[in-house]
Amino acid sequence: xxxxxxxxxxxxxxxxxxxxxxxxxxxxxxxxxxxxxxxxxxxxxxxxxxxxxxxxxxxxxxxxxxxxxxxxxxxxxxxxxxxxxxxxxxxxxxxxxxxxxxxxxxxxxxxx
Length: 112
Description:
Blueprint: H1 2-15, E1 20-24, H2 32-48, E2 52-56, H3 60-66, E3 69-74, E4 77-83, H4 84-88, H5 91-99
Parallel strand pairs: 1-2
Antiparallel strand pairs: 3-4
């Protein structure tokens, strides 16, 4: 099944003892129960293996539950960054950042 393949891929990556593990769209095409167990495994990996885990995920709620910190990128720039628990309590901020309606500081031409 897809969940077993994802767990196998995670195990193969961990054998290499990475300092950073990038997990991209873990939930894609999987049943919700499988996704929840995979996110639980990611949380255990992050706390038990001494490596940072970067999660790129469209299911923001699940990602925020598993994460310590979160960031929203818009066109390659970080437009919102905070503690995951803090962002989970402010879905309006997440939505504004994702949709590009979050007020941004004025940028100099060098920063734009």
